[in-house]
Amino acid sequence: MLFNSLIFLAFLCVVLAIYPRLNWRRQNLFLLVASYYFYGSWDWRFTSLLMISTVVDYFVGPALHRTADPRRRKQLLLVSMISNLGILGFFKYFNFFVDSAVVLLASLGLNPNEPVLNVVLPVGISFYTFQTMSYTIDIYRGKLEPARNFIDFALFVSFFPQLVAGPIERARVLLPQINQPRSVTRQMVMTGLNLMVLGFFKKVFIADTMAPLVSQAFNDPAAMNTGQLMTGLYAFCFQIYGDFSGYSDIARGVARLLGFELMINFEAPYTSRSITEFWRRWHISLSSWLRDYLYISLGGNRGGKLMTYRNLFLTMFLGGLWHGAAWTMAIWGVMHGTYLAVHKMMLGDRPLDTSWPRTFSGWIVNLAKIVVTFHLVALTWIMFRAPSFTAARDYIVGIARFDEPLQIQPIVFFAAAIMIVLDILQNHFGEHTWVVSAPRPVKYVMLQVMLVSTLAAAIYHVNTVVPFIYFQF
Fold it and tell me: Does residue 336 have an active-site annotation?
C-alpha cells in the first residue's frame, strides 16, 4: 500500500473516521490492527516476521530490566540481537552472499551448483528491525524501562506511518506518546496536512518527474554522452531527496493527524558545507542510530585518532550494507566512511562550525564548500543507484570523457531550484510547516500551487506509479 496511491488515501480516511471516536486504549488496539493490515497489504505472510521481532523483544525487555547479573544480561541481549539480525540477515542477505560465493568459486575454477531458494525481501524489514533493536539496547544500557503493555509495544514496532521507511523512532520518544491519552489540536491538523501536501509535492511533482531521466541514464550509461549522464546524476540527487524526504514529511503529517510527533528526518542536507554536516542533516534517524548503537559500540573516538578513523569507516561500510545487499552499496558506504575520516582528520580537535558568516568573502567561501560537498555526495550516488559495478564504471568513465556538447536538461535545474528554495525557507523560519504560519495570502497561494502541481503530475504519471525508493530497504 503506497502512500502515493488512492487505496492508501481511502485507508487513511477510514482510520481518521474511526480513530477519534474511540477511547485511548481502543485507539491503540485499533491502530495496531490498522498497522498490521497496512503492512499485510504487501504480503500477509511477512506480518509473522514483524510479530516475531515484537514478541522476542517484548519478553527480553523486562527480563533485562529485572536482572543485575552481567552474564545473564549479555545472554538476553544476545537473544534479541540473534533473533532480529538473524531474520534481517536471512531475508536481506541470503541471496547476496550465495551469489557472491558462487562468483568467487567460479573465479577459482570451480562450478558450484547455486541453491534454487529465492528469498524475497520483506518491505521495511531494515527499519523496524533497527527500531526494536534500539529498544532492547537502551534497556540493556539502563536508559529505558521496558514496556508494560504488549499492545502498546506492538504498536511502537508497527506504527504504520513510519513502519516501512522510517523515521527510525526511539522507544524513549515514541512509547511515552503511545502510553498516554492523546489530543489532536487544530494546529496539529493544520501542520499535519501541510506536511502531507509538502511531502506529496516533493514525491509526485519533483521525484517522479526526475525518475524517467534517471532511468534513461543509469539503464545504459555506456550509450549516453556526458550531458545525458550529468542530467541523470543531478536528477537522481533530487529524485532521492524529494522521494525520501517526501515520504518522511507524509509520515510525520499522518502521525500528527493521529496525535503523534515523529522526529525530523531531513534538515536541508544539500546546504551542507562538509560531509560531516551532511550526515547530520540527511536521514537523521539512521545516522543518529548508527552513531549511538554502532559507532559508539565500536569505541567511537575513545581509542585515539586511528581507531576513530577505523570506527567511522566501519560504521559507514555497515551502513552501506544496511541500505542494500550489494557490493555497490558497500562501496557507497566505504566512500562516505572515507570522506568522514578525511574530514575528521582535517578538523582535528576543532568542533564543527555550523554558523553562517556575515562577510561577503565568508559567503563566497561557504557557497564553494556547499558546491564541493554536493558534488562529493553526488559522486557516491552513482554507486548507490547503479545496478552493477560495470554500470557504475561506465557512468564515471562517461562523465570523465566530457563529450561535447555538454547540455543538461533545464528541468533538472528547475527541480533543484524548487527544493533548494524550500530548504532555504525552512532554514529561515526554523520549521518545516512555516507555510501554516505565513500570512494568509502567501499560505493559500503556496498550498494551492503545491496541490495543483501535485495533481497535474499525478495525472501525467497516472499509468506509472513510482514506488518510494527506500521501500526496497
Answer: no
